[in-house]
Amino acid sequence: MKKILVGLTFLTAVSSATFFSCKKSEINKQATASNQSTSKVSSETLEKIKTTTSSFIIKEHSHNFTKRPQWLQTILDDLSGAAKGAPLAVINPALGVGAAITCGIISSMKAVYQNNSNSSNNQIRNISFPISSTVSNSNNPYDYVGYWHYYTLNSALSNTSNYEDINDSFSYCVTYSFISSTLTSNNVFGGTSFSSIIGGNYSTLKSDFNYVASLSTTTCSSALYQMHSDGYINDVQYSVLSDYFDAIDNSNSASDFATYSVDIENDIVSDTSLSSNDKQCLLMIMSTARYSLQYYSLQ
Q1: Measured CA distances, 166 to 111, 115, 162, 237 (Å)
Q2: CA pair distance 220, 119, nearest whole angstrom
Q3: In the chain, where are the structural domains located?
Q4: Residue 4 φ then ψ, to 5°
Q5: Tens-place pLDDT, residues 259-268
């Protein structure tokens, strides 16, 4: 459930170099430092989110609620990957976007690969992606993140060579190269190449991917709790996302969830108490979630 908008300007080479010159230990320290955020979310916004979420869950359970979405594990990996990469925006906004997209896609592609390898039924395939009919949010400046996440993931599914090595095994390296090529050729970073955005931190993103792969959680809420406990999601972000991820776990309709998500995103956009870094992190994750449920509902 991830999509991304086009037409944003990204960072200068100088600010990018500040991050790219860091050692891995320093990078992790800086990213985790977002947990010390002086930002806050207003009590009014939190109350609106709780009320909206409660009403949404009641509605979902009222119309033949059975269980969470069919592709829950893949959705969980989608969002966990995006949530793991997004906080890097505290170092560099463009890096946060690139990391959220990349870690989210690779994590979900690994889940897709495992799903398709373990079952001859319920295969996740490349589909005709009806972009024009999906619910977008023009108020969310990071709507494009969810868009390009699912555009790239769906494109990768057109051929196994986009994510498998010569031994027909899932390959981080092959998938990363495909993502880089796709995002650069589609000018997602406003003329800046994907490799320039990521710089020499390929191994850092791979470490993030390995962290997501190691999560032994069965719900989006439990994955969020683990990432917060491990210091990758700060207290402000967690206070918002705990309700939001609970809504995902209880969703029974992609269209219902999209409407719900747009309402929450708009609350975040209008909250003047939140820092720009926290807003970016929250809005990228929500964009990914909104597109994710819509995408997998078509499978």
Answers
A1: 19, 20, 11, 41
A2: 23
A3: 43-297
A4: -140, 145
A5: 999 999 999 9
Interhelix angle 254-270/276-297, rounded to 10 degrees, is 170
Which range has highest mean pLDDT (48-57, 173-182, 199-208)? 48-57
Would you say residue 20 has pLDDT above 80? Answer: no
**Structure confidence at residue 4 as a pLDDT band (50, 70, 90):** very low
Q: What is the pLDDT of residues 202-231, one digit of tens each?
A: 777 788 788 887 877 778 888 888 888 988
DSSP symbols for the chain: --EE-S------HHHHHHHHTS-HHHHHHHHHGGGG------HHHHHHHHHHHHHHHHHHHHTT--SS-TTHHHHHHHHHHHHHHGGGGGT-HHHHHHHHHHHHHHHHHHHHHHHHHH-SSS--------GGGS---TT-TTHHHHHHHHHHHHHHTT-GGGTB-TTS-B-HHHHHHHHHHHHHHTTTTTT--HHHHHTT-HHHHHHHHHHHHH---SSHHHHHHHHHHTTSS-HHHHHHHHHHHHHHHT---HHHHHHHHHHHHHHHHH-TTS-HHHHHHHHHHHHHHHHHHHHHHT-
The residues facing 170 across adjacent strands are 164
CB-CB contact of 255 with 69 (8 Å): no
Residue 271: pLDDT band with limits 50, 70, 90: very high
Looking up tokens 């494009």 gives: 144
Q: What is the mean pLDDT of the chain?
A: 77
